[in-house]
Amino acid sequence: MSYRIQIAETQQVFFVERGETLLQAAGRADISLPHDCQLGGCGTCRIRLLDGQVRYDEEPSGLAPDQAAAGYALACQAQPLADLVISTAREDEACAEPARHQAIVRGVRPLSLDVLHVELEVPDAGTLAYRPGQYLKLVTGDGLARSFSMASVPSEGRVDLHVRRIPGGAFTDGILPRLKAGDAVDVELPLGTFFYRAKDYRPLLMVATGTGLAPIKAILESLMDDPDCPPVSLYWGMRQPEDLYLHADIPAWRERLYDFQYVPVLSRAGVGWQGRRGYVHDAALADLGDLSEHAIYLCGSPNMIRDARAAFIARGASPEHVYADSFTFQRD
């Protein structure tokens, strides 16, 4: 048995067979739907159900209950229960169309034992047109694409990445250690819908775990010395003090951001740690009280985003002003 799927904006039609997801069936029909991780974590493939219902083998972490209740679904995991009419329109600010470029590696250096700073130059792109917070796909010699958030503001062809080592990873343990200055790699950018919404003009609560700091760093750098910068609270969760790879640099951001507060939170700190402990979102809840007036940006592990989003909404946060970028391990 198959189900008929119609895309409202283009009137394109494709059919989903039993056991297929919407994304799989669309690809089989040569219909392009936005997607990235294909694990239900990033939310890039979010669509809206205008007619019909879907099911999941397992509830995806990248779709909050209030979003599902509002009729949204993730195409990479959703299986139809009937014929569907779907919308792929993004009710969002316009972003530049992604394009493929050749990039040159300008440097690779450690930021910590587990995080590397990768500096790329894209000579043919001029001033890179992306919104701080977005990500790129990097394609290396094995032909596979890996996604990394851009940790720098758009500039003359330069882009920084924070790459966390995955033990045994084909890229971080195999390809990345061999990259050197002057090597060429292919990149596709810009991608993603995680970026600063100036139209909100609300106090900012930024919550990150791990290298989820990277896109938030780019957003905050774009607000430095901006007279319209709102108050900013940054909560960064790691396990141990040595994991806080930019800890010494972040306090200086106070000089260029309006009313900036930085709170590192460690989940496995030793007795010598004098700062906050536990879950990073719990620290924010303890400090900030009512969140109804905040715009909230969450980036990092799917578990943190799921728990933080639910807790912040329960504390009054507006679901329409909670933005998230979920980092998931990618398939090699």
What can you tell me about this protein's structure?
The protein has helices spanning 22-28, 65-69, 170-175, 213-223, 280-288, 302-314, and strands at residues 2-7, 13-17, 46-51, 54-55, 72-74, 79-80, 84-87, 99-110, 115-121, 135-139, 145-149, 158-164, 184-191, 204-209, 232-238, 260-266, 276-277, 295-300, 322-326. By secondary structure, the chain is α/β, with parallel strands linked by helices. It folds into three domains: 2-87, Beta-grasp domain (Ubiquitin-like (UB roll)), CATH 3.10.20.30; 99-191, Translation factors (Elongation Factor Tu (Ef-tu), domain 3, Beta Barrel); 198-326, 3-Layer(aba) Sandwich (Rossmann fold), CATH 3.40.50.80. The chain has a six-stranded antiparallel sheet, with no helix packed on it. Helix 5 packs parallel to helix 6 (302-314). It is globular, with a radius of gyration of 20 Å. The two termini are 33 Å apart.
Tell me the domain tally. Answer: 3
Tally of helical segments: 6
Largest sheet: 6 strands, antiparallel
| CATH fold category name of the largest domain | Rossmann fold
> What's the average pLDDT?
91
Task: Please report the first level of CATH classification, the CATH class of the largest domain.
Answer: Alpha Beta
Global geometry: globular
For CATH, the homologous superfamily of the largest domain is named as Nucleotide-binding domain of ferredoxin-NADP reductase (FNR) module
Question: What is the first-to-last residue Cα distance?
Answer: 33 Å
What assembly state would you assign to the polypeptide chains in this entry?
single chain
Strand order of the largest sheet: 11-10-13-8-9-12
Radius of gyration from the CA trace? Answer: 20 Å
Extract low-pLDDT stretches. Answer: none
Keywords: Luminescence, Oxidoreductase
Cofactor: [2Fe-2S] cluster
GO molecular function, one term: oxidoreductase activity
EC number: 1.17.1.-
